[in-house]
Design goal:
- The complex is a heterotetramer, with 2 copies of chain A (304 residues) and 2 copies of chain C (263 residues).
- Chain A has 304 residues and is α/β, with parallel strands linked by helices.
- Chain A is 31% helix and 20% strand.
- Chain A is built from 8 helices and 16 strands.
- In chain A, strands 3-4-7-8-9-10-15-16 form an 8-stranded parallel barrel, surrounded by 6 helices. Chain A has a 4-stranded antiparallel β-sheet with strand order 5-6-14-11, with no helix packed on it.
- In chain A, a hairpin with a 2-residue loop joins β1 and β2.
- Chain A is globular.
- Chain C is α/β, with parallel strands linked by helices and 263 residues long.
- Chain C folds into 2 domains: 93 residues, Translation factors (Elongation Factor Tu (Ef-tu), domain 3), CATH 2.40.30; 111 residues, 3-Layer(aba) Sandwich (Rossmann fold), CATH 3.40.50.
- Chain C is globular and about 50 Å long.
- Classes of the chains: A alpha/beta (304), C alpha/beta (263).
- The complex binds flavin-adenine dinucleotide (2 copies), flavin mononucleotide (2 copies) and FE2/S2 (inorganic) cluster (2 copies).
- One flavin mononucleotide sits at the interface of chains A and C.
Amino acid sequence: MLSLETRIGRLVLKNPIILASGTCGYGDGYRDFFPAGQMGAVVTKGISLKPRAGNAPPRIWETAGGMLNSIGLENVGVDKFISEKLPLLRKQKARVVVNIFGERREDYAKLAERLGKEDGINALELNLSCPNVKKGGLEFGRDGRSVKQIVWAVKSRSGLPVWVKLSASRSDPAELARWAEEAGAEAVVISNTLRGMAIELEKKRPALGGITGGLSGPAIKPVALAAVYEAARAVRIPVIGCGGICSGRDALEFLLAGARAVELGTAVMANPRAPLEILRKIKDYLSGLGLQSIEQWIGTLKPE
Amino acid sequence: MLSLETRIGRLVLKNPIILASGTCGYGDGYRDFFPAGQMGAVVTKGISLKPRAGNAPPRIWETAGGMLNSIGLENVGVDKFISEKLPLLRKQKARVVVNIFGERREDYAKLAERLGKEDGINALELNLSCPNVKKGGLEFGRDGRSVKQIVWAVKSRSGLPVWVKLSASRSDPAELARWAEEAGAEAVVISNTLRGMAIELEKKRPALGGITGGLSGPAIKPVALAAVYEAARAVRIPVIGCGGICSGRDALEFLLAGARAVELGTAVMANPRAPLEILRKIKDYLSGLGLQSIEQWIGTLKPE
Amino acid sequence: MKGIYKCKINNYHRIGDDLYLLSLRLSGRVAVKPGQFFMLRVREGSEPLLGRPLSWFRYFPNRRILEFAFQVMGKGTEILSRRREGGDLSIIGPLGNGFETKGLRGRVLLVAGGMGMAGLWSLAEALGRNPNCAVELVWGVKSKSRFFLLKELSKRFKVHPATEDGSLGKAGLATELVKELIDQEGLPEHIFACGPKPMLKSLSKPALSKKIPGQVLYEERMACGVGACLGCAVPASGGGYLHACLDGPALRFDQIDWERVRC
Amino acid sequence: MKGIYKCKINNYHRIGDDLYLLSLRLSGRVAVKPGQFFMLRVREGSEPLLGRPLSWFRYFPNRRILEFAFQVMGKGTEILSRRREGGDLSIIGPLGNGFETKGLRGRVLLVAGGMGMAGLWSLAEALGRNPNCAVELVWGVKSKSRFFLLKELSKRFKVHPATEDGSLGKAGLATELVKELIDQEGLPEHIFACGPKPMLKSLSKPALSKKIPGQVLYEERMACGVGACLGCAVPASGGGYLHACLDGPALRFDQIDWERVRC
Ligand SMILES: Cc1cc2nc3c(=O)[nH]c(=O)nc-3n(C[C@H](O)[C@H](O)[C@H](O)COP(=O)(O)OP(=O)(O)OC[C@H]3O[C@@H](n4cnc5c(N)ncnc54)[C@H](O)[C@@H]3O)c2cc1C
Ligand SMILES: Cc1cc2nc3c(=O)[nH]c(=O)nc-3n(C[C@H](O)[C@H](O)[C@H](O)COP(=O)(O)OP(=O)(O)OC[C@H]3O[C@@H](n4cnc5c(N)ncnc54)[C@H](O)[C@@H]3O)c2cc1C
Ligand SMILES: Cc1cc2nc3c(=O)[nH]c(=O)nc-3n(C[C@H](O)[C@H](O)[C@H](O)COP(=O)(O)O)c2cc1C
Ligand SMILES: Cc1cc2nc3c(=O)[nH]c(=O)nc-3n(C[C@H](O)[C@H](O)[C@H](O)COP(=O)(O)O)c2cc1C
Ligand code: FES
Ligand code: FES
């Protein structure tokens, strides 16, 4: 029997498939299609201290092999998240990772303190790489020292495992992963969307209401894969791969490059059955190779 | 009559279509398909002081909406370039831009000195953003101070207009564009390829001989467009757009976002007729709007 | 219940210029309300990535036939227009809230702009079965080749056609015709509208100022269609945003901040 | 001369398992040498981005018919296999150097691995017309369903077939059969080979050690096909790289540094 269990710091996931932040609502967006509990973990939409309305529409635009979004981190805010969303999530028997986002450094610490007191949260994922907001996010994620400070603050205030989400856009994720590791992060997630833009030619205006947005989907897969490969060589903490993973083969490639788990975003929106299909393919493939455990696959890319 | 003339610093191009470095040989790679002289300019393959053999094959790999290359800056070296390639180029009646690349900062200065003495070169394009070599290139392109030093050295040693080629991969092109401007660059070219990677699953090995490579083609268009849009707002020197431009509409979008010219790479390899088709489409579209000059189009994206 | 349905393409009909009627055979039954929609997976290779939202058009539960009417607009609908009969197609739905029709009575005006008729057809049929309602339709299109099944519709309802080029019916926009109708025949009890945003926006003015109760089928770009991505934002009259795939696509005129609706 | 040719798809034939013979009608004449190839544009939307290199298979100048034989390997060839007769197809070529056949005489051995026969067919025909040459073919495939037009070939040449599963001819690899042939009948004057890299690499050993002059048709991934991108690097025996689309694809065994050839 093949074991798909994968350890991310203190946390053991029953399999390496995670639903990525912002693409599965507050973790339960696909309850009509599959039980979240079948996933290794689910990550909530990014939560901020105050509720955020998000950016003006249009917020979604398709591009070659990918899509842009400029949601602008619309969310209900931490209070309502705790009172209304978390209770539902607790019922789902899934590992719950809460993605948090702040405009100022202190915001992360405050969010950590609030969420650290709640039951049913298995880890915090720090969004230090959102291209869709003016302040915070990407800015912090480009400066090693800020990354370190924020990770440290969140870790000490919440007591929860801290995952740091980085982007291969305009910063070097392997370098930043080192800072995150130093500060005690238990995993880095690579990559968030890449900053991008589309234009409506006939109307001579930006296609997105937020002008620029974040590129996700198959188009960015090679970029994310390179970053994961390099980060996995740069740090000892687990790297979680994310970016354009749409098939079992894609997921197997990220694991081969050194990721200990993968997050799925765009793929699930395009096909709610994708997570289960991908899980099945991983099982079949690794069993076909006669492996006992996914550990025998992770990071075994031939160096040459 | 519509004028397509566009001014890039000291240089006037008869139209905004430029063949990008590395995708048209030493500027004359498509002589069997169209005269290079019909382009606004051609940019040569990156030239280094010494000849370079380049990376091990495979060097080309297709990805969703794009392609990876890891040529590794194979080139004949500056001596042979001057003796064998430049004479052919001079005959082509095209604006000639020589792309140069160094492993150390001094290399750029030495190249500038050599090339500054030659006739038939209209500008130097500094590759500060190649993801395909271990030393130099991308490293310099991530650090503003290095950019400034190199630009200054090349400018003063060659006397030629200096274009700086940046990447939206792991650095902020708008920020670096400011450094380039300060140092006296006459244009910035955005963007080079994005660092990426592919894996051959069945063989458990990197698909490219060079392990990682550079992503180009439609997949990166949104990333390049965002970077061009932002850089055009950050500097007063001309921005030249590059990245996934495959159609007249794509080119018109980059111009709208503020680019004063565009470079075509992957599109030409996929279809040698692309440059002329794109030029025609631009003409038809702008004439259709009743414009007299492409100046009336460049940078006129509605702000909102 | 929301689900993924693997369907067989039963048949295709061209019903006008770039207009198609797609008939699917479902594997099981489905409960659909007028105003609800499905996401159709048209993907070939990695493009187009996302599903395409289409209102269901007609449903024949006994034969398990679900129909969609669509216009070729871009890549996705183009691919859809050349899929083969007998082929497979995955659809996700039914999605969204559907129109609110409880307690409806009196004169009801349905206003369709172009392909918007596809979103109102099922509503018209449902209201047609309601003895308390008198259904009237205003349907505006660019040119008469953009009408589809107009004869069938006209047999069953009072239809006021309008064409921008005057090739059939009233020359002008649907909204102009609505204004005339109101001037001549008074306010209807309820308005339902579906069409391009400029039409809906212009319709919102008389609807709100004259306090005619009404609902629109609001089309916004979607990624997931199931409320998971917050992509389909609709400016809400109270500030912030509603979400077309969850709170809508059927929304009351007064739920929307029309000032912030970009056309 | 190299050029872009807009062709009409004249017809398609399935010639084996996943094997197709594609016949194109050119708008003009073209001068082709055995060993040269064309880049076929199979793009639909933005995928697949790049052209696909295929050796020309047969050419009938009077009817302006150019044929390609190909195996479905991935996305590009799959699309190519379902293009419709009568449709348009853009091809770029003829590209590459072609085989060197000047002054050739005596026993000439052509060694094909699988679909590699597509690259040697035109050469066999040309050499067959050379009265100074005695052409012999070794053709190895996985299983007999991978042979195509074998009967036609066998009528005109001495063909030694081999299959890995033993379903036809000798059981084993083409290279093993070549070794046997050499042992039994002595060294040929010249070897031409086309097939997967492991086959070429293994063939290079006897060819180089026994100093049999020979050429291979070397397949490498290409972006431009015209020498503009330096993508199609082949490890050169003198160090550095040759380029398959410019210096090749026909290369002498001794031009290549087989140690550095990755399989
Ligand atoms: C709830 C709802 C119901 C709809 N019902 C119908 C219907 O019954 N019949 C019909 O013909 N059309 C309907 N539409 C519009 C239809 O979804 C678009 O015409 C279609 O998605 C265009 O896809 P494309 O690939 O051909 O065009 P492209 O322009 O290539 O599409 C690019 C992207 O934009 C999106 N998009 C483009 N136009 C629209 C639009 N008007 N609304 C939302 N997204 C859009 C696409 O889904 C895709 O993600 C409906 C839209 C919504 C939101
Ligand atoms: C000079 C030359 C002549 C050829 N002649 C023939 C022929 O006559 N008949 C035939 O069936 N095949 C021939 N091939 C191989 C053929 O080009 C590939 O099988 C084809 O490109 C596969 O494309 P795909 O999209 O189906 O596969 P995919 O695997 O999806 O292709 C992905 C990418 O890899 C490239 N690629 C994959 N396999 C090869 C290969 N073996 N060589 C070069 N590039 C490859 C593709 O061009 C594409 O860029 C030739 C190759 C070369 C270089
Ligand atoms: C609609 C949308 C909303 C997203 N929201 C968030 C978010 O709130 N926080 C975050 O860290 N990442 C967010 N992301 C990024 C995704 O979690 C993921 O990192 C990215 O989309 C790349 O993966 P993919 O290609 O599989 O989608 C969002 C992505 C999309 C497409
Ligand atoms: C095969 C290949 C070789 C390249 N070589 C160079 C180079 O030598 N110097 C350079 O500055 N850019 C080089 N580039 C980058 C291109 O000039 C261009 O910036 C990039 O491909 C993005 O544009 P595109 O999407 O239009 O191809 C190369 C790109 C490719 C695909
Ligand atoms: S489309 Fe995803 S929330 Fe509506
Ligand atoms: S494929 Fe571009 S040089 Fe050979």
